[in-house]
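A quick aside before the break. I want you to see a complete sequence-to-structure record at least once, exactly as it would be stored in a machine-readable document. Don't worry about memorizing anything.
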Amino acid sequence: MHILIVEDNALVASGIRTGLELHSLHADIAPTAAAAQSHIGARTYDACVLDLGLPDGNGLDLLRRWRAAGLAMPVLILTARGTLQDKVAGFEEGTDDYLTKPFDLPELALRLQALVRRAGGRASDRVTLGACEIDMAGASVHLRGQPVELSRREWALLEALVQARGRVLSTAQLHDRLYGLDGEVGSNTVNVHVHHLRKKLGAGVVDTVRGLGFRLGEGCGADLPHPTA
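That is the input. The structure line, written in tokens, reads:
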């Protein structure tokens, strides 16, 4: 799960990013409205943490522009402005949640996970896929009841496919989810991670759609041998 943090206080932003990473949520930081707009134009985010007091404008104005442009990304406003009037204004402009400073990082992480879960049409953080049980909140996978260790990139790939709910994701889209704005990564890396994921969870965990990309499969673990008793 990849989060955009729009926060001009570098210390606060860094603390949020560090805290979210402890909950398997990776984040980019935008200290201004202009930087946030640039990030949004360059990649897709699962959710956004939005401060209102930005050095080059009001966060509400930024949110208004996003919603007017049809951007459906879940947004959580995180601000020191805690009056009822402030909250009403935030929801009227299209925020999905509102949290006031000071705040607890575990609560922020849980709220973001809930926003992304609802946006993906899931009632639970646990997804059953063939012989696999996937815990989206805990970033863990069990195959036939046994834990499977995935690398950070392998998890990011599986997470993206689960959140896509059967839609085909292109290699470029998956590359963006795995590596973000890093342009130094080789073009074949997505295929490598798909191969590793299939090796650990079975060939049916990822379907290749020729000429288009990849989507989540349904046969997780079907072709893998059962552990001996």
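Two observations worth writing down. The first strand starts at residue 2 and ends at 6. The chain is about 40% helix and 25% strand. We'll return to this after the break.
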